[in-house]
Every structure is written in structure tokens, then in C-alpha cells.
From TrEMBL:
Name of protein: PaaX family transcriptional regulator C-terminal domain-containing protein
PANTHER family referenced in this protein's UniProt entry, alphabetically: PHENYLACETIC ACID REGULATOR-RELATED TRANSCRIPTIONAL REPRESSOR, TRANSCRIPTIONAL REPRESSOR PAAX
Residue stretches making up the Transcriptional repressor PaaX-like central Cas2-like domain: 89-148
Superkingdom field: Bacteria
Coiled-coil zones: none
Source species of the chain: Nocardioides conyzicola
Domain Transcriptional repressor PaaX-like N-terminal, residue spans: 3-70
InterPro entries named in the record: PaaX-like_central (IPR048846), PaaX-like_N (IPR012906), PaaX_C (IPR013225), PaaX_trns_reg (IPR011965), WH-like_DNA-bd_sf (IPR036388)
Domain named Transcriptional repressor PaaX-like C-terminal: residues: 164-253
Length: 258
């Protein structure tokens, strides 16, 4: 697990509801049970400051960092998708985005990654499709320096679900279902302190589940097969995350000195 990714997890899943800030020492204590060493934490924090995700502040517990408004928006968007909050209803239409991509390779690659992250797929060259108009679209285009025209399609025949690799996604969900219980038990057994164990188990559970943000476009249920494993996987994740949360919260409070 990379330290930068672990920091996004801890700020999004634990600190967002606690003012989105913490002393560096507290963050180091939180990430120690999941195998992230203090030097790696400090290096990742410095990089996230330079990238505009964190900003330094002075707290009663010492020097600390809080997430920027840009980071808060991304964390809230990711949290809504991780925990399947505010699932939109689908009216049967498709949102099309006709992109004029940047000419420079790096922002062009970032544009593709960002569009994929929020649930669009490339139907043909520079034409992206989603069953929903994603609220993040304007900021994604602005960050990359791209422009786009948009339109709604009332129907496709056949539906453009083939723009996403649903076969690969099915395999990923099947694999997650087969490994999730073992993942939780392994981390619960690795720590003597019950609250620390709950934090570590939940942290790794959420971290692995969060990877589906980059793979699952969040298609409406009506477009998915009746035996879609993502439904069962989402129920299992929610049950385990809820079960582990009280102990994880106590461990976080202890690290923060609360």
C-alpha cells in the first residue's frame, strides 16, 4: 500500500468527520498498524501539500495538516460512491460528451483517467458516454485544459454497456467476495489490541473496496445482469464496515488524544 493512498483513505474515511485535520503525530500513529512507516507518511504529506490536497495548520497537538476544499470535494464524491449514498435514479437517457482533448500528452492522459474515474467510457474516439451527467465534468475539463460539447441520447440500440469491460469487473467482484472474509480475519488476528485490530481490518477492507472506484462506472441496476456479483459484494462490504466501525472509531480517537 502506498503512503499517499493510505493518507487519502485515513482522511476520507476517518478524519473527514473530525474537522478534516489532524496533527502529524496522530496520523503517524493511525497508519502504523497498517504498515506505513513514519518517514513514508511525512514524505507523502509533503507531496500532497505540493499537489494541493493538504495544507499545513497549527493544532493544539502540534503541527498538523488539513485537507483543502479541492480534496474535500474529491473525498466526499468518493465517499458517496464507496458507501453507495445518494444513488441516482436513471431516466433511460445517455449523456454524451464530445471532447476536444488537450494536445499535450500528460493532461490528455489525466483527462482520460478522470473521466473514467467518475464513470464515463469512451464510446468512439473522443466521444464519452455515461447514463448520468456527472457533476464533476466541468472541473475535470478545466483541470486538463480540454473543451467539450454535450448532448443527451434518448435511446441506444443496443445499449452501450459494451463500452465498459463488465466481464473483467464481474471477475473482480467474484474475487473480492472470495477474499473479503479472509482479509478481515487476517488483520483482526494480527493485533492484540481489539480497537487497533478493528481499525486495521476496516482500513484494509475499505482500501480494497475503494479500488472499485476506478473500475466500476456505477451503472444503473436496470443495465446489469440479474446475477451481478457487485450487489452481493456491496452488501457484504457494508455489513463488515459497519461491524468494525465502533472499534476503529475508538482507535482513531485514541490516536487524536480525544
Amino acid at each position: 500500500m502506498q503512503a499517499r493512498s493510505a493518507l487519502f483513505d485515513v482522511y476520507g474515511d476517518h478524519l473527514r468527520a473530525r474537522g478534516s485535520q489532524a496533527p502529524v503525530a496522530a496520523v503517524v500513529r493511525m497508519l502504523d498498524p497498517v504498515g506505513i512507516a513514519a518517514p513514508a507518511v511525512r514524505t507523502a504529506i509533503s507531496r500532497m501539500v505540493m499537489q494541493g490536497w493538504l495544507e499545513p495548520i497549527q493544532l493544539s497537538g502540534g503541527r498538523g495538516y488539513r485537507t483543502t476544499e479541492r480534496a474535500n470535494r474529491r473525498l466526499d464524491e468518493a465517499g458517496d460512491r464507496v458507501y453507495r449514498r445518494h444513488l441516482p435514479s436513471w431516466d433511460g437517457r445517455w449523456h454524451l460528451v464530445f471532447v476536444e482533448p488537450p494536445t499535450v500528452r500528460a493532461p490528455r492522459s489525466r483527462l482520460r483517467a478522470d473521466l473514467t474515474f467518475v464513470g464515463y467510457a469512451e464510446l468512439v474516439d473522443n466521444v464519452w458516454v455515461s447514463p448520468f451527467a456527472r457533476a464533476e465534468l466541468d472541473s475535470i475539463l478545466e483541470r486538463s485544459g480540454a473543451t467539450a460539447r454535450t448532448a443527451w441520447a434518448d435511446r441506444f440500440d443496443p445499449e452501450p454497456t459494451g463500452a465498459w469491460d463488465l466481464s473483467r469487473l464481474r471477475t473482480a467482484y467474484d474475487g473480492w467476495l472470495a477474499s473479503a472474509d479472509g482479509l478481515v480475519v487476517r488483520h483482526l488476528d494480527a493485533h492484540d489490541d481489539e480497537d487497533e485490530a478493528a481499525f486495521a481490518a476496516r482500513f484494509h477492507l475499505v482500501h480494497e473496496w475503494r479500488k472499485f472506484l476506478f473500475a466500476d462506472p456505477g451503472l444503473p441496476d436496470a443495465l446489469l445482469p440479474g446475477d451481478w456479483p457487485g450487489r452481493e459484494a456491496a452488501v457484504l462490504f457494508a455489513e463488515e464496515a459497519t461491524r468494525l466501525k465502533p472499534g476503529a472509531d475508538r482507535f482513531v480517537a485514541r490516536c487524536l488524544g480525544a
